Amino acid sequence: MLEAFVYGAVIALIFGTVLPFLYRNKKARKASFGLSLISSILLLIFAGIVLYTGKEPAFQAFRFLPGLDFTLAADRLSAGFILLIAAVVPGVSIYSIEYVEHAKSEAGKDLQTALTNLFILAMLMVVLAGNMVGFLVFWEIMSLSSLLLVLHDYSSEENKKAGFFYFVMTSLSTTFLFLGFINLFRLTGSAEFGQLDYPTNVLTLPFLCLFIGFGIKAGIVPFHKWLPYAHPAAPSSISALMSGVMLKVAIYGFLRFLLFVSAPELWWGILVLIAGSLSAVLGVIYALKESDIKRLLAYSSIENIGIILIGIGLYLIFKVEGLEALSLLSLVGACFHAFNHALFKSLLFLCSGSVVHATGTRNIEAFGGLVKRMPHTAALFLIGSVSIAALPPTNGFISELILFQAYFYSSALPDPLLKVLLITTLSVFALTSALAAALFVKLFGITFLALPRTKCAKEATEVSKLMLLGEAVPAALCILSGLFSSRLLILLGFDLGIPDMLPLGLILVGACGLVWLAVNNSGTSKSPRISKETWGCGILAQHPTMEYTSAGFSEPLVVIFKKIYRTEISSTRVYADTKESIFKSGTARIHLIKFFEEHLYLPAACAVSGISSQVSKMQNGKLDTYVLYVFIAVLTLMIFTRYFA
Fold it and tell me: In what residue span(s) does the NADH:quinone oxidoreductase/Mrp antiporter transmembrane domain sit (predicted)?
């Protein structure tokens, strides 16, 4: 019975992939997104049944080669991530019905529609894969389909650079995953996922390979630089899927390995915790300086992936130390934050797509005053901003609260050095939360409030109803999963003692209503009590140049974190006299060094390029030389197989 829901969802996504190529018209594209919407409903039912009943269905999809069966399997972990996919896809599908029509050509519209369904299908199959072979095959399909979507506008040099960057990083990710799975296969003699009751010293190499492989795909520091390139290049609906779902698929793969390890090492948890803390704080710090709305959201995704890794690191540490209750609390907090981030980040990317479509630019400095021109988008964007800033009673508050609780109860740890580490990372986590709130005050305020700063913002209009409906779906889920969070977790069997947000939500709604009534009924006189001249310091009307800009809002934080940004300030002055006493004109420039690119990626790329140029000299075009190379390669392979395989 349960298999029917999965088969139905898969068939719907396959037809959704093929349909745009068969008919090539708007009706076919609408039907294609309708099929992806139907698949999400089927997956929602499937995941709900598995999570509630605890059933673990397993069934064979098809046989590729003897011993290489593509089996599908689901347990509560995979069902949780299927639920995540099913929660994000409806909003993206509804939004894309109109959004995809903005593509430049009919062929581009059809290709984007088909690849969107293929991308969703591949992510679903990765989560359902019952063995390593199927996992890697569908992982590659997921990577290639997302790469083609990043390159949808291949005429743009920016998109070409983003596609190349993404291709290199995703290839490295697959390489490390392949090495990790090969080591597990050598250890267990099977490609199936299963319990790993082995000494941790033999699991160290697979752990490191999988940590790097999944970490690259998830975008943890220092493997994160592909995100700020790929997200601005991809269509906004695809950015919602990549950030909301694809990054979590990498988290799922890492958890799939860790949960099978019976006795992990303590240093594993410390490594994951430190990597998560660095990703969280550096992600939000780099987001604060951005003026590109989609690049800012990409850095914010790095921050939230760091928060998820903090939960996973705490889970490993508490498990090793024998604190099972705290390890479960940390794991639930990490998984719940993954689900919540999928909702509010997909919402924010969809809303940003509406803003970019209405204004024609991604530059936050060009926005302003959009709350009057796009009021519905502004309201939905505000819900996403409040959620990601972890303000009650939204869902982001609850998942971060669970992780803070895990930190606060960590005083039960016997090791004082571990306590110092956790206090330090707790401080980083708290700083990250505060900076995230400041970040989205900046983003919402500069984008939607005050006066329009450019003509494109002044002439912006609200997007279509279907796009608004697509944004409203994750917005509603952000509110509902926050208000009913404690009830949902109890329904799933996790009574964590977190506060019930529903009464608090009702109190906040009532308080806001009272404030609104008080403001609107505060007096009978219709004449202004404060003159414009006094309030504006003698200026009769405010001008857009008087407003805070994105750079101006972030400047104090840029100064505070100048050691991280590596800020370089340069200025030129021109004087009207020879004694340089009368200033005539000048320019000032603030340059932020791209540390990871300039000091990590570029040196590695130059080294690879140098090695490649030396290797290319071996290609002399002589047949005898190539036969010798083949002989040496075969001999080396035989020796390796004999002594190491």
Answer: 129-411
Residue type, 150: V
Q: Residues 217-247: pLDDT tens digits?
A: 999 988 888 888 888 889 999 999 999 999 9
Beta-carbon contacts of residue 594 (< 8 Å; ≥ 6 apart):
none
Q: Phi first, then psi: what are they for 9, rounded to 5°?
A: -65, -40
- Nearest CA among 296, 291, 441 for reference residue 367: 291
Interhelix angle for 465-483 vs 324-359, to 10°?
160
Q: Do β-strands 583-592 and 567-575 pair in parallel, antiparallel, or remain unpaired?
A: antiparallel
The model's confidence at residue 65, banded by pLDDT at 50, 70 and 90, is low
Q: Look up the pTM and report it.
A: 0.90
Phi and psi (nearest 5°) for 428?
Answer: -65, -40
Query: What number of other Cβ atoms are within 10 A of residue 381's Cβ?
Result: 27
To the nearest whole percent, how much of the chain has pLDDT over 70?
92
Q: How long, in residues, is the chain? A: 645
* Least confident window among 171-180, 188-197, 266-275, 572-581: 572-581
Structure tokens at 61: 């999809």
Q: Collapse the DSSP code of 579 into the 3-class scheme (helix H, G, I; strand E, B; otherwise coil) and give the result.
A: coil
Predicted local distance difference test score (pLDDT) of residue 559: 77
Q: How many CA atoms lie within 13 A of 282 on its CB side?
A: 20
Assess whether pLDDT exceeds 70 at residue 409.
yes
The whole-angstrom distance between residue 279's C-alpha and the CA centroid of its chain comes to 12
